[in-house]
């Protein structure tokens, strides 16, 4: 993610009107508009695979799955982020542009965004009372991390490798990690490390 060169500042209301008219996507961080960085083919593939697996499995349930172009309202009037994939099963989510009550958020990591996805974004996302799972997916090597909110409200980390199956408790779905990485090729040395 790269900030605009002239540091564009505006109110949240101005951003919510302005941003849908732009060709690129922009996040909103406490008054500052931040341009989204570009992805890679494998980033796109992994995001698409995850979206398809979720969308197919949840088609008959009252859940909606969105990829890339739907914002999550992290803090009203303060922060609006674009996760790679988001699931909401909350009937209160009726806005055409924004998910306010996510149950599952997935970020596919790139070297340029990993620190923000792990740090700042997760710190903000976990304040959501409806978010149950936050998934980080490596793209340069196979590996998935799931942060899950337990009954005490604490976030617990579980790690998965290419041979594992991932249980997404937030939506009651089990997915093979290999299916998330369908058509993604890894350097043989990295895959065995």
Overall description:
The protein starts with a strand and ends with a helix. It has helices at about 10-20, 40-55, 115-125, 175-180, 190, and strands at about 1-5, 25-30, 30-35, 65, 70-75, 80, 85-90, 100, 105-110, 135, 145-150, 155-160, 165-170, 175. The protein is built from five helices and 14 strands. The chain is α+β, with helices and mostly antiparallel strands. The strands form three sheets. It has a six-stranded mixed β-sheet with strand order 1-3-2-6-5-8, covered by helices on one side. Strands 4-7-9-10-11-12 form a six-stranded mixed β-sheet, with helices on both faces. It has a two-stranded antiparallel ribbon with strand order 13-14.
Mean pLDDT: 91
Give the helices and strands as they follow along the chain.
Answer: EHEEHEEEEEEHEEEEEHH
* Separation of the first and last Cα atoms: 29 Å
Please give the share of residues in helix.
Answer: 10-25%
Q: Summarize the biggest pleated sheet.
A: 6 strands, mixed
**What ranges have pLDDT less than 50 throughout 5 or more consecutive residues?**
1-5, 189-193
Beta-strand percentage range: 25-35%
Structural class: alpha+beta
Going across the major beta sheet, what is the strand order? 1-3-2-6-5-8
Radius of gyration in whole Å, from Cα? 16 Å
Number of helices: 5
SS elements, strand count: 14
Net shape: globular
